Write the structure tokens for this entry.
Amino acid sequence: MISRQLTAFNTATESTNKIHDDETARRFGFTGGLVPGVEVHGYLSWGPVRTWGEQWLTRGTMTSRYSRPTYDGSQVTVTFDERTGEATVGDGEQVDAIATAALPGLSKVAPAISDYPHLPVPADPPPASPHSLSTGHHLGSADLVFPDEKAERYLDDVREELAIYRELEVAHPGWVLGLANQLLMTNVVLGPWIHVGSTVTNFAPIRRGQQVSCRGSVTDQYEKSGHRFVELDVAVFADEAAAAHIQHVAIYEPRQVRQHLG
């Protein structure tokens, strides 16, 4: 078992997603603004990358789920069990997030770029709803050159201590997962919303200067416990070769928001 401690940092205080804003989050029953789940995923990736290095960035997998909020400024402990592949983030008494990582002997079949059409982002995105996020709906693509402005400061923002990212000039797993959030946020207008979990399969590190295209579609949307959920099938390509496949789950309309609006 290996572990490290860090001070959690809310990277999204200026985000349009006001669940990361202290005042809005408190109004919906949280202690303060939530650290984005993609950044918590980034914390969880520390153990697999320290253990397996570039191999994990090339063919590793990880499923992360968030049971409790991680708050800005909180002192958290990140653990990784090299035997079981289980990673956690928590305050030492309670676990905020848990993940299961693996390094398969062989890579899974990479997503084919032909299966993920490149579409424009809507000029006037519709409000998030069961209609605009209907199952099978293809989303407008997110395109950029790595590193973008966020990536340039990302390693500091997530308190990353591993040298591999700077030495190889490759993208951090938390930044890669953040592209799935970007895909959702640029295709529909959202109120406060919550990323609740993801399964990521890596196929190649994203390297400096590569053209990145994040594409995807809605695989499911439903209501559960008063929340409205959406599930996305996302593929990230670098210079048109598969870099990652992401199964992304979010509450796009929390019940607290629905009650507030009602």
